[in-house]
Amino acid sequence: MAVRKFKPVTPGTRHKIISAFDDITCAKPEKSLLAPLRKSGGRNQQGKMTMRYIGGGHKRMYRVIDFLRNKDNVPATVKTIEYDPNRSARIALVVYTDGEKRYIIAPTGLKVGQQIKSGKGVAPDIGNTLSLSEIPLGTLVHNIELHPGQGAAMARSAGTYAQLTAREGTHAVLKLPSGETRMVLVTCRATVGTVSNPDHNLESHGKAGRKRWLGRRPRNRGVVMNPVDHPMGGGEGRASGGHPRSRKGIPAKGYKTRNPKKNSKKFIIERRKK
Which of 86, 115, 173, 216 is the most buried (most CB within 10 A)? Predict the structure, then answer.
């Protein structure tokens, strides 16, 4: 999984760095696992804009991903590794011995033809899903559940992983990608390995058009607005804008927005690094 850097033949390719897509083994997705995906343009049901800087973008179909991995003790063979336009990670099409096909988030090192399994008593190999009570300490995991049977909620984007550091009674201690250390029930499931496409953070669009293909419109800074539009707006010439804050006046640097009475606070041992 490498990246391609382009020669500056045009202004658009001067800073362009994209994935080499050398890990992709199939160009067309599995039709039975596709679902329609409608764009909102940042508007709600009344047609009012609730999110700015959203619009356009290439037409996509949603790939139905199996985040539950609840087909226990039935071996599945990896058929293809595919590109998913809806996420940064690669996805893998797996075929179970009974003929059922499912998409999963592909971990790094998963190969076509490899067998994977989920459930109790499964070996902690790359791509296998089992409960945190059965995974050896120090193992790198991804697709972690927060509640048993909920489906994967943490460490799902490209290159991410969490490390299982300890087990204390009914809870396992995980060090998350953000640096946060938190407790999760040992009955929750996780997949062994790290998420594929770890070089995703090295990519550079190179031109505004590539961002428009993703459905992201130009975002203008608060300091260039008028005082009526933003707290940092106004002033003669290039005024600095004062204290950095959001459009609604919430400070941007160092201000804690997490509710101290949040129910999950008791499970967090150490907060993320600032």
Answer: 173
Query: Is residue 272 predicted with pLDDT exceeding 90?
Result: no
Domain count along the chain: 1
Residue by residue, what is the 3-state secondary structure of 8-61?
CCCHHHHCCEEECCCCCCCCCCCHHHEEECCCCCCECCCCCECCCCECCCCCCE
Residue type, 263: N
Does pLDDT of 146 surpass 80?
yes
Per-residue exposure over 238-267, b if at least 16 CB sit within 10 Å of its own CB, e if not:
eeebeeebeeeeeeeeeeeeeeeeeeeeee
**Residue 180's domain spans which residues?**
3-201
**Does 270 reside within a domain?**
no
Determine, yes or no, domain membership for 138. yes
Radius of gyration of the chain (CA): 22
Phi, psi at 213, each rounded to 5°: -60, -30
**Tokens describing residue 172:** 């396992």
pLDDT of the residue at 274: 67
| 163 three-class SS | strand
Which residues is 34 bridged to in the sheet?
A: 63
Query: Does residue 27 lie within any of the structural domains?
Result: yes
Written as six digits, the tokens of 235 are 């002033």
The reported pTM is 0.92
C-alpha–C-alpha distance, residues 141 and 15, integer Å: 34
Cα angle for residues 7, 12, 16 (degrees, 5° grid): 55
Spatial CA neighbour of 89 closest among 8, 24, 173? 24
Question: Going by C-beta distance under 8 Å and a sequence separation of 6 or more, which residues neighbour residue 226?
Answer: 233, 234
* Nearest residue to 269 via CA among 173, 186, 187, 177: 173
Tell which residue, 124, 263, 108, has the closest CA to residue 182: 263
